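debug: dumping io for the single-chain case to check the tokenizer round-trip. Nothing else runs in this session.
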Amino acid sequence: MSLTIGEELIHPLLVMLSLIVLAISGVAYYRRKSPRYLLLFFAFVFLFASQVVTYAQELYVGSIDLQILGLHPAHVFDLGALFSFAGALLEN
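debug: decoded output
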């Protein structure tokens, strides 16, 4: 599978940027220890996992689906990120 120049640039950039915000959220949770920051940390973990899976599939595997759900793994991670962001927004 061949990637275009845009894909060769954007996928590693997305992985790196999601890792940066993951690290920032981890430090923020370590300093604050609140449930809101924990949920934000989990959201960025899911975001990072989604980007890594998408990049790996583009480079090596092609499309794979979860056998039980029939879903692309990145979609499951995106759903986890959305639920975590929603939980952080609703946290008192």
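debug: round-trip ok. The chain is about 80% helix and 0% strand.
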